[in-house]
């Protein structure tokens, strides 16, 4: 299953359309959308690290994440200037000064994603 987290509705809209996702009308603390065949689920988190962490926790807890089988994607513009789909290989947290290097466990080219390049990402508390 693809677990997708988007901060903003505008970022999620093309994915909701392309993947034919339907709104979950049950009580949810976040706007949640899912594929009829259970291949994908998307949550709109709101902006910021706390909102993203909370929504991701909700998503993985509610739907049950299976490492090695499922894929978690944080999808959005990230206030980026370079167009395209980029695989993030380094995350720098501006608040703490720490760097994180996500495990590159999946060959996403096999998913049909038109990846432009690998890039570093810098997180900040305010834009």
Could you outline the blueprint of secondary structure elements for this entry?
Elements: E1 2-6, H1 9-18, E2 22-23, E3 31-34, E4 40-44, H2 49-63, E5 71-74, E6 85-93, E7 99-100, E8 115-123
Parallel strand pairs: 1-4, 1-5, 6-8
Antiparallel strand pairs: 2-3, 3-4, 6-7
Describe this structure in words.
- This protein is of the alpha/beta class and 127 residues long.
- The protein has two domains: 77 residues, no CATH class; 49 residues, no CATH class.
- The protein is built from two helices and eight strands; from the N terminus they run βαβββαββββ.
- The protein has a five-stranded mixed sheet.
- The longest helix is centred in the middle third of the chain and has 15 residues.
- The termini are far apart.
- The relative contact order is 0.19.
């Amino acid at each position: 299953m693809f677990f997708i987290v988007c901060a903003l509705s505008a970022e999620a809209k093309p994915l909701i359309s392309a993947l034919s996702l339907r709104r979950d009308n049950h009580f949810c603390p976040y706007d949640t959308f899912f594929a009829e065949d259970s291949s994908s689920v998307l949550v709109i988190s709101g902006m910021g690290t706390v909102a993203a962490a909370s929504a991701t926790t909700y998503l993985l807890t509610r739907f049950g994440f299976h490492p090695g089988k499922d894929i978690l994607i944080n999808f959005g513009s990230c206030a980026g200037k370079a167009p395209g789909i980029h695989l993030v290989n380094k995350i720098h947290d501006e608040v703490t000064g720490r760097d994180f290097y996500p495990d590159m466990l999946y060959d996403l080219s096999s998913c049909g994603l038109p990846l432009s390049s690998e890039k570093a990402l810098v997180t900040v508390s305010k834009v």
